[in-house]
C-alpha cells in the first residue's frame, strides 16, 4: 500500500482524533499530559496535511466525473488544472512529515575537536574549527559552553570539548562528525608551500541519566593535580578528575575547573554522551548493513570535508558541494549552506527507502 493512499491517510486522521480524545480524558498525570500534548502537537501538523490531501483527491474525483457533462466540462478542466498543481507539492510535504524522526534530533550535544595528522598546523586548524562551531552556535542562538581545552605550544588545540544547548542542535550538527582536512600555507612554513593536515570532529548527542545507565561499580575515578594554567592553585590541589568506564574502556579527563566536584560533573556528562554515542553507532551500523549511506555514517575516521585556503574553497565530499567562501563558513554564518544539502540528501535517501518499503 502506498504511503499516500487514501486508506493510509485516513488512518492518520483517525489516529489524530483518537489522540485528541485521550488527551481530553480527566485524571491524566502531569507528566503524561505533557508527553501526550507534545505528541498531539506533532500529529496535528501531519493530520492537517493528510486531511487537505484527502480533500483534494475527493474534489478531483468529483471534477473528473463532470468531464462527461458538456455544460460543465470546461469549468471542470480549469479547476482540475489547479488541483493537479497542488497535489504534487502537498504530497511531497506529506512524505517528509511521514519520515521517522531521529529520536536524538532535539538533543543538545557534546562537541569534541582533536588535532589529527599535521603536527602544529593540525592543532592550529583544530582551534579554527572549534571557533567556527562557537560562532555557528552564536549564529543559531545556541549556548556554547567550553568544557575542556588542551592547548598546543603555538596556541592551537590538541583537543577541546564544549556543550552546545538550544533547539534541534543535534539535528543540525550530526553530520559534522568525521575528519576535516585543511590545505594552507602553515604559519611555521617559510617557503610558502601548501601543506595538508587534519582534525577530527565528534558530535555526541547529550545523554541524560535515563538515556544511559552508568553503574558506580563500573567506574574507576582518579584525581590528580591539574597540569594546565592556574598558578599556585593547580600545584596544591588534586582538582583534576579522570573517570574510566571499566566495561568499555572509555576514559574521560577534566581539569579546567578549580573544583573537583565540578570537574567530576563535567566528566560524567561527557562520559554519558560517549557511551550513548556507542549505542547509537551500533544502531546505525545495523542500519548501514542494509544499504550504503549517501551522507555517511559520521564515523570520525571518515574524511568528510576539505578546507582549501589558497582557493578560498570548502568541499564536502559526501554530497559533492563546493563553495568558494571559506571566510564566511569559518565565521559561522555560511555553514548552513553546507549543512542543509547534507540534511536534504539524508531526507531524500530515507524517502526513497520508505517509498520502496511502502510504509
Question: Could you give the order of the helices and strands?
Answer: HHHEHEEHEEEHEEHEEEHH
By CATH, the topology of the largest domain is Alpha-Beta Plaits
What's the main sheet like? 8 strands, mixed
Number of strands: 11
What structural class is derived from the secondary structure elements?
A: alpha+beta
Architecture of the largest domain, CATH level 2? 2-Layer Sandwich
Helix content: 40-55%
Instruction: State the name of the first-level CATH class of the largest domain.
Output: Alpha Beta
- How do the strands of the widest beta sheet line up side by side? 2-3-1-5-4-9-10-11
What is the residue-averaged pLDDT?
86
Uncertain ranges = 229-235, 290-294
Topology, element by element:
Layout lengths: L5 H18 L6 H37 L6 H26 L10 E7 L3 H22 L2 E9 L5 E9 L3 H5 L4 E7 L10 E11 L13 E6 L7 H5 L3 E6 L4 E5 L5 H29 L14 E6 L4 E4 L4 E3 L2 H5 L5 H22 L2
Parallel strand pairs: 4-9
Antiparallel strand pairs: 1-3, 1-5, 2-3, 4-5, 6-7, 7-8, 9-10, 10-11
Helix pairs in contact: 1-2, 2-3
Protein model, in words:
The strands form two sheets. Strands 2-3-1-5-4-9-10-11 form an eight-stranded mixed sheet. It has helices at residues 6-23, 30-66, 73-98, 119-140, 169-173, 232-236, 260-288, 326-330, 336-357; strands spanning 109-115, 143-151, 157-165, 178-184, 195-205, 219-224, 240-245, 250-254, 303-308, 313-316, 321-323. The protein is α+β, with helices and mostly antiparallel strands and 359 residues long. It starts with 5 loop residues before the first helix and ends with a helix. The protein folds into three domains: 6-98, no CATH class; 109-209 and 294-350, Alpha-Beta Plaits; 216-279, Double Stranded RNA Binding Domain. It is flat. Helix content is 47%, strand content 20%. Helix 1 packs antiparallel against helix 2 (30-66) and helix 2 (30-66) packs antiparallel against helix 3 (73-98). Mean pLDDT is 86; it is low at 229-235 and 290-294.
Amino acid at each position: 500500500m502506498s504511503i499516500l493512499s487514501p486508506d493510509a491517510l485516513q488512518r492518520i486522521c483517525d489516529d489524530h482524533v483518537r489522540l485528541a480524545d485521550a488527551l481530553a480524558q480527566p485524571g491524566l498525570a502531569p507528566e503524561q499530559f505533557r508527553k501526550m500534548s507534545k505528541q498531539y502537537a506533532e500529529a496535528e501538523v501531519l493530520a492537517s496535511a493528510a486531511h487537505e490531501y484527502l480533500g483534494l483527491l475527493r474534489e478531483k474525483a468529483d471534477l473528473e466525473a463532470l468531464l462527461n457533462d458538456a455544460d460543465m466540462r470546461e469549468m471542470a478542466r480549469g479547476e482540475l488544472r489547479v488541483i493537479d498543481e497542488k497535489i504534487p507539492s502537498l504530497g511531497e510535504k506529506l512524505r517528509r512529515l511521514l519520515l521517522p524522526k531521529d529520536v536524538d534530533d532535539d538533543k543538545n550535544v557534546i562537541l569534541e575537536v582533536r588535532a589529527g595528522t599535521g603536527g602544529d598546523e593540525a592543532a592550529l586548524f583544530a582551534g579554527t574549527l572549534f571557533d567556527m562551531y562557537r560562532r555557528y552556535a552564536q549564529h543559531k542562538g545556541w549556548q556554547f559552553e567550553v568544557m575542556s581545552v588542551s592547548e598546543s605550544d603555538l596556541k592551537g588545540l590538541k583537543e577541546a570539548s564544549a556543550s552546545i544547548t538550544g533547539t534541534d542542535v543535534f539535528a543540525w550538527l550530526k553530520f559534522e562528525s568525521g575528519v576535516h582536512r585543511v590545505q594552507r600555507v602553515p604559519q611555521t612554513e617559510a617557503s610558502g608551500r601548501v601543506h595538508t593536515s587534519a582534525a577530527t570532529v565528534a558530535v555526541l548527542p547529550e545523554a541524560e541519566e535515563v538515556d544511559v545507565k552508568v553503574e558506580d561499580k563500573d567506574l574507576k575515578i582518579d584525581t590528580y593535580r591539574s597540569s594546565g594554567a592556574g598558578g599556585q592553585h593547580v600545584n596544591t590541589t588534586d582538582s583534576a578528575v579522570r573517570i574510566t568506564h571499566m566495561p568499555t574502556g572509555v576514559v574521560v579527563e577534566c581539569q579546567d575547573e578549580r573544583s573537583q566536584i565540578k570537574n567530576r560533573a563535567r566528566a560524567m556528562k561527557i562520559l554519558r554522551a560517549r557511551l550513548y554515542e556507542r549505542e547509537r553507532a551500533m544502531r546505525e551500523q545495523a542500519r548501514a548493513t542494509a544499504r550504503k549511506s549517501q551522507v555517511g555514517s559520521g564515523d570520525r575516521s571518515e574524511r568528510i570535508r576539505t578546507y582549501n585556503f589558497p582557493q578560498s574553497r570548502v568541499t564536502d565530499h559526501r554530497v559533492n558541494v563546493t563553495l568558494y567562501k571559506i571566510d564566511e563558513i569559518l565565521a559561522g554564518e555560511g555553514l548552513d549552506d553546507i549543512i542543509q544539502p547534507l540534511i536534504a540528501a539524508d531526507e531524500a535517501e530515507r524517502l526513497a527507502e520508505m517509498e520502496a518499503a511502502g510504509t
